[in-house]
Design goal:
The protein folds into two domains: 133 residues, Quinone Oxidoreductase, Chain A, domain 1, CATH 3.90.180.10; 138 residues, Alpha-Beta Complex (Quinone Oxidoreductase, Chain A, domain 1). The protein is 28% helix and 24% strand. The chain is built from eight helices and 15 strands. Strands 3, 4, 5, 6, 7, 14 and 15 form a seven-stranded mixed beta sheet that branches. A six-stranded parallel beta sheet has the order 10-9-8-11-12-13, sandwiched between helices. A two-stranded antiparallel sheet has the order 1-2. Helix 2 crosses helix 3 and helix 2 packs across helix 7. The chain is globular and about 60 Å long. 44% of the residues are buried.
């Protein structure tokens, strides 16, 4: 079969021949890959910057995708740590880590949306007890996952969603997605009284926003839960010690490890329904797998999805 193969952290994928997959586990099945998204997680695991990267090569990247099983049924599947990902004509999935899809879905759209949507969906569902009527700040809202977070927070009943980002040209689009207010990072103080922060950036933007928000809170004894989801602005953040004492701040992470595989899988059916029903806006572009070397480093607002 044909697949995209990476041989080192600093090498781009090369498209070529690869041995056919073999199912070995009780719940394993060989499936045909119809569409697989190029997510930030996929790149980070492949280049070694994600904490779950193993450094085992050769590696076929791809953490999820829409596949067709041996019975002809469509599934969305999330792969466990494996060197045979979804950037291939065929791969092996654990059936327990998949959800059946209807035959009329758009595989490209589903493959594009599920991973970035899952970040905030799982954070609000599995890392905290989010309640209808609470307010949310999305830090890094102009990115794909951040835009999804705005929509998901509203879907879960947020009374107010503040979207913070650097690219002001995206603000009107965020308002169309449901953001009640759009701000730049240096305006974080105006979001002082939110209940939850969904942070896709970390780094300096997160550290720089914390103290202005905390010191401006009307009631510093009211809890503020800061959920660290992504690190697009840096793997470390110089959090001032005063931020941990000046108000009732709780910082926690949401991702592989802090959320169990069981909890991720439990959320897949409802999230897949939301995506297939068109409840979440997503911009996707299909790219032939043979063009992966050129597309691998492309920077675009669309979610690239590789297809056979």
């Amino acid at each position: 079969m044909r697949a995209a193969v990476i041989t080192s952290f600093d090498a781009p994928p090369a498209y070529g021949e690869h041995p056919d997959p073999v199912a070995t586990g009780e719940h394993d099945m060989v499936v045909e890959v119809l569409a697989a998204g190029l997510h930030h997680l996929t790149r980070a695991k492949a280049n070694g910057t994600h904490y779950s990267a193993t450094g085992d090569f050769p590696l076929v990247p791809g953490v999820d995708g829409v596949v067709r099983d041996g019975a002809g049924r469509l599934r969305y599947a999330v792969l466990d740590d494996t060197n045979l990902g979804t950037f291939a004509e065929r791969t092996v999935i654990d059936a327990r880590r998949s959800v059946l899809l209807s035959d009329d879905i758009d595989p490209v759209r589903v493959a594009a949306a599920m991973n970035p949507a899952m970040a905030s969906w799982v954070a609000l569902r599995r890392r905290i007890a989010f309640r209808e009527g609470q307010s949310v700040l999305v830090l890094g809202a102009t990115g794909s996952a951040g835009g999804m977070a705005v929509q998901i927070a509203k879907r879960f009943g947020a009374a107010q969603v503040v979207a913070a980002g650097r690219d002001t040209t995206r603000f009107k689009a965020l308002e169309a997605l449901g953001a009640d207010r759009t701000i730049t990072f240096d305006e974080a103080g105006v979001a002082a009284d939110v209940d939850v922060v969904l942070d896709f950036l970390w780094g300096e933007p997160a550290a720089g926003a914390m103290l202005p928000m905390l010191t401006a809170r009307a009631d510093r004894s009211a809890p503020l839960t800061w959920i660290q989801i992504g690190s697009m602005a840096g793997a470390t953040a110089p959090v001032p010690s005063a931020a941990l004492r000046a108000a009732r701040l709780q910082i926690l992470g949401s991702g592989i490890g802090s959320v169990t595989p069981r909890d991720f899988i439990a959320e897949l059916p409802e999230l897949a329904d939301a995506v297939t029903e068109g409840a979440l806006d997503v911009h996707a572009r299909a790219v032939p797998m043979a063009e992966i070397a050129q597309a691998w480093t492309e920077r675009t607002r669309e979610r690239l999805v590789f297809v056979p």
